[in-house]
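User: Show me an example of a complex going from sequences to structure tokens.

Assistant: Sure. Here are the input components:
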Amino acid sequence: MSGQPILDVQGLSTDYTVRRQGKTIQVHAVKDVSFTLAKGEVLGIVGESGCGKTTVGRSIVRLAKPHRGEVLFAGTNIFAAAPDELRKLRLRIRMVFQDPFASLDPRRSIGDSIAEAGDIHGLFKGGVDRQGEIEKALNNVGLDGSYAARFPHELSGGQRQRIGIARAILPAPGIVIADEPVSALDVSVQAQVLNLLADLQEMMGLSMVFISHDLGVVGQISDRVAVMYMGRIVETAATRDIVDRPIHPYTITLMAARPRPDPKIRIKPGIEIGEPPSQFDRPAGCPYAKRCAIATSLCATDDPSLRMVASGRMVACHNV
Amino acid sequence: MLYVSDLSVSIGTRADFTDIVSSVSFEIGKGEILGLVGESGCGKSMTSLAVMGLLPEGGPWVRTGRAELAGFDVIHLPPYRRVESGHGGIAMIFQEPMSSLNPVMKIGEQIEEAIRVHERLSGDALTRKARELLELVRIPDAALQLGAYPHQLSGGMRQRVMIAIALACRPQVLIADEPTTALDVTVQTQILSLLRELCDSMGLAILFITHDLGVVAQLVDRVAVMYAGRIVETAAVAQMFERPAHPYTEALMSCLPDPARFSRRLTTIPGQAAKPGQVKQGCEFAPRCRQAVEICVADAVPYAQLSHDHRALCRFPLVEPRP
């Protein structure tokens, strides 16, 4: 995992314009986010609702309109790509979404859904080749070819997510962006789908951005983790380091709040750790300052930027 | 406090029915939290709706069983009859507070509405009671928040309002059906902490329904695991995690990602979860069980009593019985 990164995100900001009580407000969903993804690497992005993790994923393929920054995919700036070029790039960077029922057309057969991108881009050499590619994609996700003729309503949640993955990998992409791919699944099914993603990632040498609110799931599959809060990355490090020695106060809180299946760690009455502030009245300074145990007066005025604290390890905090 | 025995909920007609909840029995003591755990479709929500008297008209129906609250069987009483007859001691909260709250009514009015069903209060006394309930669930600036509408509150605050409304009826038992599933982890921790506090300070008995084994480990006192409409194991929480007796419980726990373990592959359970009524004969879990033998598939399974509060619906439980 060395050399030039396959994906290089620099200074990405994405704003949404919202009308509220008659006023137009700019919400900074993503604010100055930078990271790289090495070839064959899995980067986990973790954070709570509204932290901007989904918007980062969507901005990379311009499903959300990024306002500033650039994203280089193997050297090509996606944000500067012409429409034609963008369509081709989207064949190389594929997405898997959370709710595979909402992202599959209920009136289309599974085979047609899987082949859609290939059909649009003319990837198949005739019907036999198309059928073969569909079957291969289905086999890769652990389903047999007979599923091609079925429809989404006939499948369970886990099977539907396998179809979502088959659709993403059919054009042999370089990167898969998976946005909460196992959040809607039961634990036993979640384990199956996580194993499948790990298998495919190794087999195809995929690079992957894995977005989830669940640190356990992210830790399971990722080589490296970026923790987001209020539109910013507050900490990034190798998964092991994030799990064993979180540095940013928010990462520490997040790790502690994760319900671990260990009955010796019991929840106590009277825990009050506050909630994230509203995106509509973003505080000046560090957005975590109000909830932070080690905040100083500097934190109330200056928003810390990400800085290197150790090799491969960056933290946005004045006090660590 | 609450005794549920031999509860079966069925779909279909009296002559031709399928049990979606089969012969479920459990009890919850004062100040105790019982976790009802299982995957989608295992019957955990149906069990709670049946106990609450909220099964939809013309839908699934209670075929057998009792739900005794203070010695009185309430299973066939709809909620309004329970209040009239003085047996309305069970309250319930749900996963999505926004779909339970009225979006065009101030939360103060919604709490007062719930209080008035149970108590003759009006004017300042009513407002004061509503404010006290909001304070009890630790909503900051309670007096001010009485005038807020649901959309002005965060998800965590809305769930606190739901708990306040549930407490307005002064329940002995609270049924919480996945109350934190839609919430972020840091918010979830605080709601769980609040439930623990209410349980300890008011002696509330809580039936906590969840699919999340992490939440189970940290919050509940005893666990009942459901699979395909049946309770397959009940035990004290420490026992369940340290020495699971049913192969399904063991398998479910090994599916959990554990960052501390750091293996890139998780253990999985082969196949898909059986739907209630799908397996016609023998043990429902047998087709997926790693230790199933012929008799498991052929014959009905008896409960194995492993200690005074640990039992499993398995012929070959993974732990030895203790006197």
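The lines above are the inputs; the final block is the predicted structure for all two components together. Chain A touches chain B through 48 residues (CB under 8 Å).
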